[in-house]
């Protein structure tokens, strides 16, 4: 279950890496690896107290003092815009953006903007954040965008007629939708960024012992929890789970690849799904991201059926 390890020895002196949700789990391990490589590392986190503690630990373990903490609440589009503006104004470059933060199988909660929590945090927040930072990423090219998705996307469906799952919510259904949205966003973004020097990668990190499952395990039936306990010994550690993220962020062999999906530090076959543009249109409307498009908006469950222009 441990899978493979990123073998790249690439150094990142003079480079800037921003990682969302980097105060714990695979995000923290990824940040530690980037710091060891000499990068300036920005931890973009919701819980600033825990982020500062994580940053201190990373500085001590890596010997790299260039580790900073920034506030980011992906459940608030205003927080996303605020940090994006801060990064644009304060950072001269952004070489690697790692969209790592996420929430998994929580109850039916809403973001501050009224979106279903898993779709809002896992997809919409990162969608807006990434688009706001594209100019800086292009300026810093060659640069990379790494999107942490999940194997769960393979059973996912984008519910255009009920995107917030108000009619039929289940934690699993919502999580799968959000992770499919991650992969579709990565594919469409790669297409749009061709020729800019910015490449995009999405990945499944594996099943990992992290806090991400805090809403999942307690809600399992007792017999399932009993079975899961011994199986937990086979689950990856955060360090093992971070390897595919690190591979996509730094490995030299991927420099000319974009829009692909990875598992176990290897390229993995992805289903041929043609929902990229439709999802981008809907996400743009929901976040008012201002993406330049001029295409038939199609029918979002009969919500829209007109020509759309985003300027």
What features would you describe in this structure?
The chain has one domain: NAD(P)-binding Rossmann-like Domain (Rossmann fold), CATH 3.40.50.720. Strand 5, helix 6 and strand 6 form a beta-alpha-beta unit. The chain has an eight-stranded mixed sheet, sandwiched between helices. A two-stranded antiparallel ribbon has the order 9-10. The N and C termini lie far apart (47 Å). The chain is α/β, with parallel strands linked by helices and 311 residues long. The chain is built from ten helices and ten strands. It is globular. 46% of the residues are buried.
Features:
311 residues, alpha/beta, Rossmann fold, eight-stranded mixed β-sheet, two-stranded antiparallel sheet, 10 helices, 10 strands, 38% helix, disordered C terminus, SDR_fam, oxidoreductase activity, oxidoreductase
Neighbour order of strands in the largest sheet:
3-2-1-4-5-6-7-8
Q: Please report the number of helical segments.
A: 10
**Tell me, what's the shape?**
globular
Q: What fraction strand?
A: 15-25%
CATH architecture identity: 3-Layer(aba) Sandwich
Under the CATH scheme, which class? Alpha Beta
Low-confidence stretches are 223-230, 292-311
Class by SSE composition: alpha/beta
Order of helices and strands: EHEHEHEHHEHEHHHEEHEE
Q: Mean of residue pLDDT? A: 86
CATH superfamily: NAD(P)-binding Rossmann-like Domain
**CATH third-tier fold name:** Rossmann fold
Indicate the percent of residues in helices: 25-40%
Distance between the termini: 47 Å
Number of strands: 10
Number of domains: 1
Report the biggest beta sheet as strand number plus sense, adding barrel if it closes: 8 strands, mixed
């Amino acid at each position: 279950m441990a899978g493979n390890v990123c073998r790249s020895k690439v150094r990142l002196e003079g480079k800037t890496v921003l990682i969302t949700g980097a105060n714990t789990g695979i995000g923290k391990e990824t940040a530690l690896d980037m710091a060891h490589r000499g990068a300036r590392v920005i931890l973009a986190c919701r819980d600033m107290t825990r982020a500062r503690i994580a940053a201190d630990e990373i500085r001590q373990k890596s010997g790299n003092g260039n580790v900073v903490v920034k506030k980011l609440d992906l459940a608030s589009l205003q927080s996303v815009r605020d940090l994006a503006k801060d990064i644009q104004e304060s950072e001269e470059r952004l070489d690697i953006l790692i969209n790592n933060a996420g929430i998994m199988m929580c109850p039916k909660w809403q973001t501050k903007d009224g979106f279903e929590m898993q779709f809002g945090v896992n997809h919409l927040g990162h969608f807006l954040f990434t688009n706001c930072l594209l100019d800086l990423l292009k300026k810093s090219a060659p640069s990379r965008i790494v999107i942490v998705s999940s194997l769960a996307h393979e059973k996912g469906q984008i519910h255009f007629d009920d995107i917030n799952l108000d009619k039929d919510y289940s934690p699993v259904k919502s999580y799968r939708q959000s992770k499919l949205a991650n992969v579709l966003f990565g594919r469409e973004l790669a297409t749009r960024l061709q020729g800019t020097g910015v490449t995009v990668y999405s990945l499944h990190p594996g099943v990992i012992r992290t806090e991400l499952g805090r809403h999942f395990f307690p809600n399992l039936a007792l017999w399932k929890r009993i079975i899961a306990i011994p199986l937990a010994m086979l689950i990856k550690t955060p360090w093992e789970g971070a390897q595919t993220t690190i591979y996509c962020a730094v490995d030299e062999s991927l420099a000319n690849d974009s829009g692909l999906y990875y598992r176990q530090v290897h390229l993995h076959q992805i289903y041929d799904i043609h929902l990229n543009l439709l999802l981008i249109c809907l996400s743009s409307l929901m976040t008012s991201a201002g993406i330049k498009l001029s295409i038939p908006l199609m029918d979002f469950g009969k919500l829209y059926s007109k020509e759309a222009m985003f300027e």
